[in-house]
Amino acid sequence: MAFDLVVRGGTVVTPEQQLVTDIGVANGRIAALGGGLEGRVEIDAAGMLVLPGAIDAHTHMAAVAGGGTSADDFLSGTRAAAAGGVTTIVDFTGAREGRTLVEDIASRRVASGEAIIDVALHAEMIGWRAGREGELAAAVDAGVTSFKFYMAYGDLGHRSDTGALLHAFRGIASLGAVATVHAEDDNIIGAARRRLVGAEETSMTGLPRSRPAIAEGAAVTAAAYLAEKAGARLHVCHVSSALGLEAVTRAKERSVALSAETCPQYLLLTEDVYREAEAAQYAVMPPLRSAADTEALWAALRDGRIDCVATDHCPFRREQKRLTGVFDELPYGLPGVETLLPLLFSEGVVRRRMPLEAVVRLLAEAPSRLFGLAPAKGRLAVGADADIVVFDPHATWEISADVLHMNTDFSPYEGMSVTGRVVTTVARGDVVYAAGGVVGEPGRGRFLERSVGQSSARTA
Which of 89, 188, 199, 299 is 20 to 30 Å from the Cα of 435, by its Cα? Predict the structure, then answer.
């Protein structure tokens, strides 16, 4: 039979193995793996790697932060994602005071309507209060099964205290859903901020001093304990430090149902950038840490203590991050969705000899499993969505904001030499990026309604 599409002769990489084979696609799904397949459209992948589409499980498109809005909306951001081999993102609802979780979800679904790749959502739990647990089941019915709490940002009204967390975690556990946390202890941050003196009270060098790694370790410890006692599954976002990792490790050793992510910025950048001329452009929460912290995180990727890598993609343009007052008045976030896969391949596989299979696990298999997107997402197997990336492992290029598709004039990795580049991205059987250009149609992406107690996601 002739398939709709065949990816021919590439090295297909799964979490378990590598094999040279063809992939046949029909009706947007993988229909066959084997030799000699024929398709109405064929992609020659000889000499290339064939990877499952990456899942960026932590993005902030068109997000309000620091009085501004992040530079990528769902159209520009998902175009950039496709150019980087990302075929699914999990974004956030953008909670608003006075709205229910279901209203937040409905609003964000409308905002994501122009996406060219598939989108799922975490429910953002801004300043969550005990007593609203009844909204959780309605959110799950609306296809959102993960809930994001902030243990910091009390001055902005975002923080959820431990009492609210405990009651929410119990409700989440009863539904079989997932609690996720931004883990930084607000009291430690407040005390550290008050101890800054001199230039550090306003300059960017004060940022990492104001949010020390011990704040992350303390918050992870507290959240893990509450989740353990509530019986909830917990996901720790953007682990940035050896102390945060230590707390993750202790919880896992106690068999707490806990997973953790880190981000490329915590693997590749250090707090030294806060002494540079463009220091304000690197404003991000949690802040960048020391070289010793980056090495600890790489070790945790190798041994499995960190489960996945996501970007926390929240880009701004240079003018939006011009420091005119004190560092904590800046909008926080970095661009990253387009460079996620190339950076992890170049720095992890090429430079640090990480197995290719580990990259597939970290960027596809694990996030699909952790967030209820499997078996449709995260694997190259018969029956799965045809989310496929043809990747040239030998191509070398230099990162520059000028050559990327993200709607920002800044890259934190500007000038970095990279080995490995996306050649073609296929999302649910459609070519959305090829020959250096984005060809996916606005609005072709689907909203993924996830279910608890099942591994699959419904599309709507």
Answer: 89
Amino acid 453: pLDDT = 67
Is there a contact between 150 and 164 (Cβ–Cβ < 8 Å)? Answer: no
Domain membership of residue 21 (yes or no) is yes
For position 243, which CATH number holds? Answer: 3.20.20.140
Same structural domain, 199 and 67: yes
Tell the residue number behind the tokens 């279901």, with chain if given: 102
Q: How far apart are CA 455 and CA 394, in angstroms?
A: 35
Residue at token pair 């951001």: 77
Domain that holds residue 387: 2-51+380-394+417-459
The number of folded domains in the chain is 2
Q: What was the pLDDT predicted at 456?
A: 41
Task: Tell me the C-alpha to C-alpha distance, in Å, between residue 160 and each of 121, 255, 261.
Answer: 20, 25, 21
57 and 47 in one domain? no
First to last CA, the chain: 30
| 183 and 236 fall within a common domain | yes
* CA angle centred on 109, ends 108 and 114, rounded to 5°: 105
- Rounded mean pLDDT for each run of 10 residues along the chain, 460 residues in total: 95 96 98 97 98 98 87 98 98 92 97 98 92 94 98 93 96 97 98 95 95 98 98 98 98 98 98 97 98 98 97 97 90 97 98 97 98 97 98 98 97 98 98 96 98 57
Which runs of consecutive H residues, i.e. helices, occur in 231-362? Answer: 242-253, 264-268, 291-303, 340-343, 356-360
Q: Are residues 363 and 447 in the same domain?
A: no
What's the CATH code of the domain at 40? 2.30.40.10
Same domain, 441 and 334: no
Q: Please give the single-letter amino acid code of residue 26.
A: A
pTM of the model: 0.96
Contacts of 261 (CB under 8 A, 6+ apart): 57, 58, 235, 236, 237, 238, 239, 306, 307, 308, 309, 310
